[in-house]
Amino acid sequence: MTPRRAVNRTYDEIAVGDSASETRVLTADDLVLFAHASGNLNPIHLPGRQGEGDDEPAVAPGMWIASLFSSVLGNRLPGPGTCYRSQTVRFLAPARVGDTLTTTVTAKLKLADSVIVFDGRAVNQHGTVVAEAEAEVAAPTRRVTLEDAGLPRLALHRRAKFDALIAACAPLAPLPTAIAHPCDSPSLAGAIEAAKARLIVPILVGPRARIEAAAAGAGLDLAGIEIVETPHSHASAERAVALVHEGRAQAVMKGALHSDELLAEIVKREGGLRTKRRVSHAFVLDAPVLDHLLIVTDAAINILPDLMTKADITQNAIELARAIGIAKPKVAVMSAVETVNPSIPSSIDAAVLSKMADRGQITGGLVDGPLAMDNAIDCDAARTKGITSLVAGRAEILVVPNLEAGNMLAKNLTFVAQADAAGLVLGASVPVMLTSRADDVRARLASAALAVLYRHWQTTGVSAVPAADGAA
Length: 472
Fold this sequence. Notes:
Number of strands: 18
Largest sheet: 6 strands, mixed
Distance between the termini: 22 Å
């Protein structure tokens, strides 16, 4: 890593035998970033891409190792202002992800015109010499000080947080799930992939001929999967809910029908899946720039929620967060400002919800508001505003003022910030996967994992995910 402050040594200040070192750990991200920067896509250098039948771990490209010598020369000795003339390298042993490499350069010979020849050696944590080098550089002739390079932050999105949720479902039984009207390829493929991942046991509810035609068109195998015949989408939604009442299904997944059509059956007073709590939706987002999952609610069901509806939305989201392993979720109730302003109703609702949590009317999480987006998720922004809070800068749940704000926020995070998104309907007697036609198979798998974990929480009150402390 580049030092925050580096002072060079000029040609005249360097004597033969002077040396400097840097140590760094080779990570999988290093290999991916180097592939992007260099254009070298040789699979032996990419984690998980080594090629069919090759069980050897990825090894660092030789030029990545060679760049370690450049780092020491440019940062340490001679330091800032150094210019390369030439370098030769001998590669003696592979470097693999997790190796700790110590790279040392030693002044060997001083030539005319401020040129110095350096020997270099890179050694791993076992003392094995990985590479030897000889570099000829033009050393600086005047003092140059580097004060924090200020490089833009880079983030690689590996979907590791969603992978962890899916892996946490492995010990749990697949969830019998009624798929309402899976009459197109995306919804059908999502259900079948979730079944292959042992997340659900699908029951396909809809017109058999259309389901089979969609399967044939996408090359999907329906062998062993139950199909419950219905004539049209409305009947599919109604029958999917009925399968829950019959005890045959423990979750519902939306297929190729409108969300309103399915939700109308879910929230029916007679024959629906209502509970005492208001039904709400939560997006769970895996954003590259955050080291924790972010829940945004409600961005899909409640258009202009009143105070008591927001209380239910908040409680639903807290329970989902606890189901996915956040022991004490931090909830930011959002507004445009972080102070109560009577002219901004959402700021008043936020303050009241915070007090309701203090009084035990909302339980299981830390609730604070009003908070604006910047000081909800960024500690520096919260510190600059002088906000003292256990939630500010560390929020894992964002409770938005209304559906419009939530929908725009979730889609902004998805399409601009490149977050992966999965979603779940909460507050019903069973989880409901309200997938979108735009969702890829990966998003549908993550939604299925959320349903499995949430259902486990509903029935046991215990998370199947190892508890996290919720720190951002």
